[in-house]
């Protein structure tokens, strides 16, 4: 199969590139499944993937904006990132994997996957890198989920809403989001992501509470049974066994974490547009026990962090083999560049009650006093009213993390995380550092 020339006409290039991608896919299908390939067959698979991805890059350099316009009706429709990726698969066959292709691979251990989702990373990198489409996609992901309105009516009526892995409840002048994944130390995975985003939507939408609190629930793990844990980060057992999709990373950071930082957008006004205010409220994190990986990432979008004495934070990205969300963008403005690199690249941990830890944590309380300390923080932040709190967080955000800085970071993140997610080194790291091969999914 030869590399086609691009004409610059969208329809013609879809057809010619589609024929080439189909040809390379047919060649790949003649090879044994990935675990059974000998060296020559593995090399052939790499060659086929390399050729196909080179053409995808060329196609997207020419047609990314035209593609996005077709998928969003000229940017008049807001389409969530997962829907967008699979709609692109239908519109341009061969550009990215279909739902059926991803579903087939999702049944495999991570080491045995072909890595078709890498092409979703390429697509999103191009769309996010372009200012117009990138801002529009960020806007789409900052809108409340379509199913959040139904859940909100129940929260408004009852003052509490239980989801499978999260709870939202009013508690005094705060609305509390509690992460509840007790078997896995409140780790994040495909089972928790939708619940977390719904909970964040509801917390921001709740007009009866001026501030929101995020806290980990009680866990059942033998080592910490009966104790609260903030979060153990990504579920490494599920990651090793192939149960974390690539789009999970993008949905998480464009969705619930970004909403905690920037609030909920409205369909008719871009986020952070000075002509209108985003619907948002200050967030307080209550860190019991530890905030590992993704848990530590969450602290970087909080307005106030209360931690129990003895709690600690880590970002073990090097030992996992992945990029720690948007921590590379945000952590240096808390700790400085040098300490950030030590956490991300060298596996350094921080005690919350240490000089370095207090660069992230605002207050330390005795473990037995956390409930009282949290109530005092809520009282202190709300006695003067929430208007100035929200106004000041918006003003701070303008300089600290403009939308375009985040968008450009996510363009890089989409490409690099896709590569990391399917790297053989990821599997080696998980087996060496976490004994993931010995754990039950």
Question: What report would you give on this structure?
Answer:
The chain has 441 residues and is α/β, with parallel strands linked by helices. It folds into two domains: 10-142, Methane Monooxygenase Hydroxylase, Chain G, domain 1; 148-401, 2-enoyl-CoA Hydratase, Chain A, domain 1 (Alpha-Beta Complex), CATH 3.90.226. 52% of the residues lie in helices and 10% in strands. It has 19 helices and ten strands. It has a seven-stranded mixed beta sheet, sandwiched between helices. It has a three-stranded mixed beta sheet with strand order 6-8-9. Helix 14 (327-335) crosses helix 15 (337-346). The chain is globular, with a radius of gyration of 22 Å. The chain starts with 9 loop residues before the first helix and ends in a 7-residue tail after the last helix. The mean pLDDT is 95.
Keywords:
single chain, 441 residues, Methane Monooxygenase Hydroxylase, Chain G, domain 1, 2-enoyl-CoA Hydratase, Chain A, domain 1, 7-stranded mixed beta sheet, 10 strands, 52% helix
Please specify the SSE layout and strand pairing.
Blueprint: H1 10-29, H2 39-71, H3 81-91, H4 99-106, H5 118-129, H6 131-142, H7 148-158, E1 160-163, E2 166-171, E3 174-179, H8 190-205, E4 211-216, H9 236-240, H10 246-254, H11 256-262, E5 283-287, E6 290-292, H12 294-299, E7 304-308, E8 312-314, H13 317-320, H14 327-335, H15 337-346, E9 349-351, E10 363-365, H16 370-382, H17 386-400, H18 403-421, H19 424-434
Parallel strand pairs: 3-4, 4-5, 5-7, 6-8, 7-10
Antiparallel strand pairs: 1-2, 2-3, 8-9
Helix pairs in contact: 1-2, 2-5, 5-6, 5-18, 6-18, 7-8, 8-11, 10-11, 10-18, 14-15
């Amino acid at each position: 199969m030869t590399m086609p020339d691009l004409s610059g006409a969208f329809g013609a290039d879809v057809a010619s590139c589609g024929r080439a991608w189909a040809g390379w896919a047919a060649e790949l299908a003649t090879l044994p499944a990935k675990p059974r390939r000998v060296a020559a067959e593995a090399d052939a698979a790499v060659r086929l993937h390399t050729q196909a991805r080179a053409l995808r890059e060329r196609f997207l350099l020419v047609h990314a904006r035209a593609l996005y316009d077709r998928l969003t009706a000229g940017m008049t429709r807001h389409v969530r990132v997962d829907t967008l990726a699979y709609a692109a698969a239908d519109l341009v066959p061969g550009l990215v994997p279909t739902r059926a292709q991803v579903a087939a691979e999702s049944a495999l251990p991570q080491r045995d996957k072909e890595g078709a989702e890498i092409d979703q990373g390429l697509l999103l990198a191009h769309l996010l890198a372009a200012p117009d489409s990138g801002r529009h996609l960020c806007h789409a992901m900052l809108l409340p989920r379509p199913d959040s309105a139904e859940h909100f009516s129940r929260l408004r009526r009852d003052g509490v809403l239980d989801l499978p892995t999260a709870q939202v409840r009013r508690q005094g002048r705060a609305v509390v989001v509690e992460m509840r994944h007790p078997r896995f130390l409140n780790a994040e995975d495909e089972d928790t992501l939708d619940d977390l985003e719904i909970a964040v939507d509801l917390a921001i939408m709740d007009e009866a509470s001026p501030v929101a609190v995020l806290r980990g629930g009680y866990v059942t793990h033998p080592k910490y049974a009966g104790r609260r844990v903030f979060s153990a980060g990504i579920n490494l057992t599920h990651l090793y066994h192939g149960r974390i999709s690539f789009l999970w990373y993008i949905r998480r950071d464009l969705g619930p974490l970004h909403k905690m930082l920037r609030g909920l957008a409205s369909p008719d006004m871009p986020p952070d547009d000075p002509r209108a205010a985003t619907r948002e409220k200050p967030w307080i994190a209550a860190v019991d026990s530890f905030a590992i990986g993704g848990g530590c990432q969450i602290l970087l979008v909080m307005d106030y962090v209360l931690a129990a004495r003895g709690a600690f934070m880590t970002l073990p990205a090097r030992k996992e083999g992945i990029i720690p969300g948007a921590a590379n963008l945000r952590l240096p403005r808390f700790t400085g560049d040098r300490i950030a690199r030590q956490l991300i690249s060298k596996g350094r941990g921080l005690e919350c009650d240490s000089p370095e830890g207090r660069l992230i944590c605002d207050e330390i309380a005795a473990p037995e006093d956390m409930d009282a300390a949290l109530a005092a923080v809520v009282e202190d932040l709300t006695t003067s009213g929430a208007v100035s709190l929200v106004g000041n967080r918006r003003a701070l955000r303008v300089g600290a993390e403009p939308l375009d800085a985040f968008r450009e970071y996510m363009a890089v993140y989409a490409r690099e995380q896709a590569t990391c997610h399917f790297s053989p080194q990821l599997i080696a790291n998980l087996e060496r550092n976490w004994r993931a091969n010995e754990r039950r999914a």
